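Researcher: Next entry in the queue.
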Amino acid sequence: MNDQELSRKAPRSPIGLMSRVYRFILPEVSAELGKWRRDAEQIPDDELRSQALASIDTKRFHCQGGAVYAAANLPEKHILIPLIVAYQTISDYLDNLCDRSTSLDPKDFRQLHQSMLDAVTPDKALEDYYAYRSEKEDGGYLTRLVMTCREAISQLQGYEAARPYIRDLASLYTDLQVHKHIHPEQREAALLEWWSIHAHRTPHLRWNEFAAATGSTLGVFMLFLAASDPFLDDQDASSIHAAYFPNVCSLHIMLDYLIDQDEDRIGGDLNFCNYYDDAEAMLSRLTSIVEWARKDVAAIPSAGFHRMIIEGLLALYLSDPKVSEQQLVRSVSKRLMKRSPMTRIFFLVNSRWIRRHKND
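Model: Structure for this entry, 360 residues:
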């Protein structure tokens, strides 16, 4: 990879990053989501339409956060933003379908998520993603999302080097979604058995932290960005994969679960933060994951940009209104923010502003 070129393109300061986010990223993400929302409104099946619209309306910040990677290569944002938004929209839509599913069939969940693997495997034949469920008529919505990803990928000149590493992350993501959505009494055993196969890859992580790492799309988005470099080679792609998986990815999803504890308890959903003995143990592990993540990204080009991603993750999740509604989460959040670097405080203020103006 041309390290100097990537470093030159990537923003070097929080102000530089957020100016790009406000000027370019948020407006273009909004335009893309508007397009997909209009498409989702035409879905014939009531349940599929309802879940597609809900995923766009309630999880848009996933796309906004993911598309920050396009800020590191603005000349290619016309490829990266539609790609990241389409891929994340598939993820959010399927998560809604599985979380509030009319079935508990692992074959159904795996077949639905085959779309995420197909989205990053341009030469593979498309499948019937609804083969194992009664709701089928989406008017081609999911296939169009898959094809949008493929069309964008065809314009990424370094994609072949990134492809096996993206496939690895997409495969792990699919496995997680299958295991975590089956019958509640079978979930933990299935996740532990699955972890035992992969534990050698992440010996420093507990099973719940490994599972969290597989649930993040950030590693895929970073590899999309890397693939916009025509000089990307296997060694570079491997280094980027290792810098993001597992620690940056685990931090991302553990923070997500941290703030969703009350919501998941009410919904009967599995939450990876519930597997610690107490708040002190959870805080200690999260703090360690933050430090491991910082150390990992120091080994790849534009390390400053990736450090901003980590501080931005902490700011984004710890500024969520759900934090103030949960005493335990509020306590952990305060301690994670203690001695916060100015970068994180800057992103905290910006995260709150973006939330207040989310429908602008």
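Model: Residues 1-7 have pLDDT under 50 and may be disordered.
Researcher: Noted, moving on.
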